[in-house]
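Key result, reporting period 2: structure in, sequence out.
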C-alpha cells in the first residue's frame, strides 16, 4: 500500500481533469437537478454510479472483459445526453421515476468504468499486483466525484434559495446546456467510431 497516495491522487485528479470533462458533465447532470434537501436521493444516485463504474473498472483491469475504446468513448457522452433529457422531461421526482434514475446511474456507471480503465491501464503498465493500486485509484475517483457533487449542490442551493431562481428553471437551464455539449461530443465521437 506504499503507492496508495500516488494512485489516490491520480484518481481524484483524473475525475477533476478538465481535459476529460465528460465525466464531470455526467456527475453534474446526475445531481444538478437536486438541492441539498435531496441529499439522500443524491447519495443513492452517486452510490449506484460508483458501484457500476467500480465493477467494470475492476473487470477490465483484471482482463475479464475487453474494451472497445472508440465505442466506449462514444457511449460516454450518450449517457450524459440521456441523463440530461431525463432531467428535462421529469418535472417531479415520483418514486417509480426515481428508481429508474437509480438503475440508469448504475448502468451508466458500468460504461464510465470502462472509460476509466483505459487511463488506469496506461498507468499500471505491466505491474502484476494491481489490487492495491486499483483500490487507491477508485477511492481517489470517489473523492473527486464528491467534490463535484458538493460544488453543484452548493451552487443549486445558492441560486434557488438566495438568488430565487425557480428550481425548474435552473434544472432546465443546466440540463439543456449539458444536453447541447454532450450532443456535440457524441456527434464528434460517432464520426470517429465510423472512421
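The corresponding designed sequence is given below.
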Amino acid at each position: 500500500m506504499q503507492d496508495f497516495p500516488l494512485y489516490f491522487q491520480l484518481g481524484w485528479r483524473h475525475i477533476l481533469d478538465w481535459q476529460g470533462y465528460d465525466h464531470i458533465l455526467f456527475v453534474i447532470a446526475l445531481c444538478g437537478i437536486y438541492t441539498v434537501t435531496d441529499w439522500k436521493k443524491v447519495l443513492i444516485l452517486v452510490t449506484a454510479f460508483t458501484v457500476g463504474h467500480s465493477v467494470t473498472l475492476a473487470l477490465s483491469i483484471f482482463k475479464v472483459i475487453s474494451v472497445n475504446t472508440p465505442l466506449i468513448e462514444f457511449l460516454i457522452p450518450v449517457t450524459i445526453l440521456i441523463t440530461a433529457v431525463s432531467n428535462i422531461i421529469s418535472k417531479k421526482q415520483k418514486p417509480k421515476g426515481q428508481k429508474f434514475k437509480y438503475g440508469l446511474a448504475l448502468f451508466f456507471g458500468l460504461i464510465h468504468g470502462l472509460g476509466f480503465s483505459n487511463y488506469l491501464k496506461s498507468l499500471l503498465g505491466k505491474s502484476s499486483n494491481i489490487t492495491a493500486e486499483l483500490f487507491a485509484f477508485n477511492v481517489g475517483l470517489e473523492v473527486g466525484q464528491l467534490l463535484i457533487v458538493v460544488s453543484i449542490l452548493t451552487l443549486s442551493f445558492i441560486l434557488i434559495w438566495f438568488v430565487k431562481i425557480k428550481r425548474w428553471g435552473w434544472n432546465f437551464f443546466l440540463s439543456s446546456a449539458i444536453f447541447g455539449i454532450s450532443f456535440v461530443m457524441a456527434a464528434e465521437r460517432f464520426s470517429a467510431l465510423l472512421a
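Residues 31 and 42 are 6 Å apart (CA to CA). The mean pLDDT is 90. This case is discussed further under Risks and Mitigation.
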